[in-house]
Design brief:
379 residues, alpha/beta, GMP Synthetase, Chain A, domain 3, Rossmann fold, five-stranded parallel β-sheet, three-stranded mixed β-sheet, 50% helix, 12% strand, elongated
């Protein structure tokens, strides 16, 4: 007997304060604003629900939709492609009622009948199923097409036989339940799943040819004793500092020279002096005026690609015939067209973009160290 599923009761105020489905998808980087607008337009044209429209048009995956709706409504979800309910349990709900409300019984959780539904938040439908089955229903979010497929499987292609569901309550095996259901509908679990799925997708789609080119540019600067300047704001400032540390220290090999690398975010006195006396947009470019030489490398990190102080510094670096590199996310912003090489993290989440930038500077530094340790310096 499995009794792990719990109903997440929400107050009316909490329901009123729910984030919109589209906003959640934007927050986790699964959609860009332009993609959401496209989905909304198609949703309005078709009259279908937004989440279903986004899945059917290929803008998001079904698992993302289930988890996002679960987070929004505070109701467990189930992926019926990974979970096989028993026929006798499905027959607990009469066919006409099940088809009318796109609902399917999937098993018992304690004293409740877990029921996958297209509209699990519809309390009137829940009451009708409870009155018909004499069961206490635990509503669960399910994909309408999967529910209909199971109903067709049971009521059209299998021989009709009396259901024993009312005679002996059935339980869902733990292993099967865990494959498809968010057992506790724990918001942290769902947040983590959405976040890590988005991060995994961004990492897997990193343009490795751009990473290889960055490594070659940095290695050339190393051999030619050129300076490498790195800059960014906020989280990207931390990345610039961390990248500078790793490039300067973690690549060090005994008996060999080291990278000449400077983070423009480190000298707080100088940074704030220029920001205060001139303008924050000049905080990086004014530092470059003291130091930059032809052939130096300037790396601008900006998740949006539109940070004015980064853009100003890149423009100046280009005028001094430096080699400019951009690390961005989203669509690359203005930065992508200003630098010699731009690596755009394929995500519309600031957090995912920053995470991947950290991952990239670790990868680049580790690979450069491996190259320098090799006598042939093959790359």
């Amino acid at each position: 007997m499995v009794d792990a599923i719990k109903r997440d009761i929400q107050t009316q105020e909490e329901r009123n304060n729910r984030r919109r489905l589209g906003q959640i998808l934007l927050d986790y980087g699964f959609l860009s604003p332009a993609q959401l607008r496209l989905g909304l337009r198609r949703h309005q044209e078709s009259g279908r629900f937004l989440g279903e429209t986004l899945v059917e048009t290929g803008l998001i995956g079904r698992k993302v939709w289930l988890e996002t709706l679960s987070l929004q409504l505070g109701i467990p979800s189930i992926d019926l492609r990974a979970f096989n309910p028993e026929e006798r349990i499905i027959r607990t709900i009469p066919e006409e009622l099940a088809r009318s409300y796109t609902a399917i019984a999937v098993g018992h959780s304690g004293n409740e009948l877990a029921t996958a539904m297209r509209f699990p938040q519809n309390e009137e439908v829940v009451r009708k199923i409870e009155n018909t089955t004499s069961e206490t229903v635990l509503p669960v979010i399910g994909w309408a097409g999967d529910i209909e497929k199971w109903l067709d499987e049971v009521y059209r292609t299998r021989p009709t036989k009396p259901s024993r569901a009312y005679e002996e309550p059935s339980t869902v095996e733990p292993s099967g339940l865990q494959q498809g259901l968010h057992l506790e509908c724990n918001p942290l679990d769902i947040h983590a799943s959405l976040y890590f799925n988005g991060l995994r997708g961004a990492i897997e789609a990193i343009p490795m040819e751009a990473v290889q080119e960055i490594i070659q540019i940095l290695l050339k600067a190393y051999h030619e004793d050129k300076n490498i300047f790195i800059m960014g704001n906020g989280g990207s400032a931390a990345t610039a500092s961390h990248f500078s540390c790793d490039l300067g220290k973690s690549t060090a090999v005994d008996g060999k020279k080291r990278f000449r690398v400077i983070s423009l975010t480190e000298n707080v006195s100088l940074l704030t002096a220029w920001a205060n006396d001139s303008h924050y947009e000049n905080a990086f470019v004014e530092q470059l005026r003291n130091l930059i030489r032809v052939g130096d490398v300037v790396i601008g990190i900006s998740t949006s690609g539109n940070s004015p102080n980064v853009l100003n510094a890149i423009e100046y670096a280009n005028s001094k015939r430096a080699i400019t590199i951009g690390l961005t996310g989203f669509s690359g912003g203005k930065l992508k067209d200003m630098v010699r090489l731009c690596l755009i993290v394929p995500s519309f989440s600031v957090q995912h973009t920053e995470d991947v930038h950290h991952t990239l500077h670790h990868l680049i530094s580790m690979h450069l160290r491996a190259i320098l340790r090799d006598k042939g310096e093959i790359y």
